[in-house]
Amino acid sequence: MASGLSIGYIQFMVLLLWITGALMLRFDLKYYQLKKEMKEAKVTSMLGWMNIVLGCIAFIGNWIYQKMW
Questions:
Q1: What are phi and psi of 37, to 5 degrees?
Q2: Which sign, positive or negative, has the C-alpha torsion 9, 11, 14, 15?
Q3: 32-65 pLDDT per residue, tens
Q4: Of 6, 18, 48, 69, which residue is 20 to 30 A from 24 by alpha carbon distance?
Q5: With bands split at pLDDT 50, 70 and 90, how would you rate the model's confidence at 6?
Q6: Nearest to 25 by CA among 44, 42, 12
Q7: d(Cα 42, Cα 46) in Å, to the nearest integer?
Q8: Beta strand segments in the chain, E
Q9: Residue 39's pLDDT is what?
Q10: Do 27 and 46 meet the contact criterion of CB atoms below 8 Å apart?
C-alpha cells in the first residue's frame, strides 16, 4: 500500500503470538492452578512464555530485516 498503513503477515503473526501467550498466562494458568492441576499449569506456563518469546524473536528479526533492506 502506498500510504504505509498496511500490515504484513509477520506483524499479524507477532500480534497473535503475543495475545495468545498473554491469554494463556492470564486465564488458563490461573484455572489450572485453582484446580490443583500442576502438570497442566506447568505446560501452560511454558507454552505461554514460549509464545511471547517467539513473538519477540519474530518482531526483532523482522525489524533487523527491514533495516538491512
A1: -100, 85
A2: negative
A3: 999 999 999 999 999 999 999 999 999 999 999 9
A4: 6
A5: low
A6: 44
A7: 6
A8: none
A9: 97
A10: no
